[in-house]
Amino acid sequence: MGVIVNKNNQQDNELSRRIDADLREKALKASGVVGDTETPDFAEDTEYVRDFKKTSRFGWVWVVLIILAIISIISIVMI
Question: The pTM is what?
Fold first, then answer.
């Protein structure tokens, strides 16, 4: 003998959605973030990276030079 349970998922889903929206709104207010903007990382404010400089627009040149150096070393060893 079995018992059939019928649960009203639509009501539960609506309640869960409202609770999620309310908690999300409270969390955004508590964190000081306004709207749907991306939250800041603050990693650049740490002491470790304070004096670092961002890569210039010619950073790709270093990658090309390193690849060419590796290719030349391999070709010298193969010959």
Answer: 0.36
Instruction: Residue 13: count other Cβ atoms within 10 Å of its Cβ.
Output: 10
Alpha helices in 1-79 (DSSP H): 9-31, 59-78
CB–CB of 38/30 below 8 Å?
Answer: no
34-to-23, 24, 41, 44, 45 alpha-carbon distances in Å: 15, 12, 15, 21, 21
11 to 15, 16, 17, 20: CA distances (angstroms) = 6, 9, 10, 14
| pLDDT digits (tens), the chain, 79 positions | 566 666 666 667 788 888 888 988 888 888 765 555 565 666 666 777 777 777 788 889 999 999 999 999 999 998 7
The answer to whether 52 touches 46, Cβ cutoff 8 Å, is: no
